[in-house]
Amino acid sequence: MAWFFLLFLSIGLIKEGKCIVDEDFPFRNVSLDWSVRVDDLVSRLTPHEIIDQMAYGGGWNDGVTPPIPRLQILPYSWGTECLRGDISENSTGFPQAINLASTWNKQLVKAVANATAYEVHAHYNVYRKEGLYGVHRGLSCFSPVINIMRHPLWGRNQETYGECPYLSGMFAIYFVHGLQGPLSSRYLNTNAGCKHFDAHNGPENIPQSRFSFNVQMSEFDWRSTFLPAFHACV
């Protein structure tokens, strides 16, 4: 996970595939091992800066991560919607996840995710060139949704791969590989984020909030139904 931390913070240094500053610090030197770069970067961050990088940039309400001018690290948004294509304008709109699930075609799902990653990256390059920061303008995808559909009244059923833990897990693997690129690659095309919490599957209604509720289930159901897709994702 250490290299992931470096990857996220270093995204703010990348513009159109090239470093926008001189390699003054070891953490900017792409020829060094990940562990060396991580140790160097973390050693230069204050506790407050680390907290800010983790606390902001996740959605509409919390804004982008604060820049760190002394290290020339730029703002960043962790939240880009990639569920059925890049959410940005002039992007390809693919069928919803539940429709893709009906095909049982894992290579198709991977191809959709791969095409999405290229469009996300293309928009990201434009945003960086124009100095635009904000939600849905980063390389971190809030996708795929691998919650299990357990109730027909849940308002997010169409975002899932349905009620089958096996299918959801299999599609999670191929969607993540499509978004991120080959495992042999040093860098990711985008980074996937399997969501939401493992037992998040509604339905919700006032006063039942979709942001917080008390989940009650047996350990057997938890391990056999809800966890497998997330285990596959990881």
Please tell me about this protein's structure.
This protein is mostly helical. It has two domains: 1-74, no CATH class; 79-234, TIM Barrel (Alpha-Beta Barrel), CATH 3.20.20.300. It contains seven helices and two strands, in the order αββαααααα. It has a two-stranded antiparallel sheet. Helix 1 (2-11) crosses helix 2 (34-44), helix 5 (106-130) crosses helix 6 (165-180) and helix 6 (165-180) runs parallel beside helix 7. The protein is globular. The protein starts with a helix and ends with a helix. The model is unreliable at 1-8 and 10-21 (pLDDT under 50).
Summarize the structure.
The chain is an all-alpha fold. It is built from seven helices and two strands, in the order H-E-E-H-H-H-H-H-H.
Q: What is the CATH architecture assignment of the largest domain?
A: Alpha-Beta Barrel
End-to-end Cα distance, whole Å, is: 12 Å
Strand content bin: under 5%
Low-confidence stretches: 1-8, 10-21
CATH C-level class of the largest domain is Alpha Beta
Helix content: 25-40%
Strand adjacency order, main sheet? 1-2
Radius of gyration equals: 19 Å
Structural class: mainly alpha
Overall number of domains: 2
Look up the CATH topology of the largest domain. Answer: TIM Barrel
Largest sheet, if any?
A: 2 strands, antiparallel
CATH superfamily of the largest domain: Glycoside hydrolase, family 3, N-terminal domain
Total strand count, please? 2
Taken from the alpha-carbon principal axes, the silhouette is globular
Averaged pLDDT: 86
Helix-strand topology string: HEEHHHHHH
Number of helices: 7
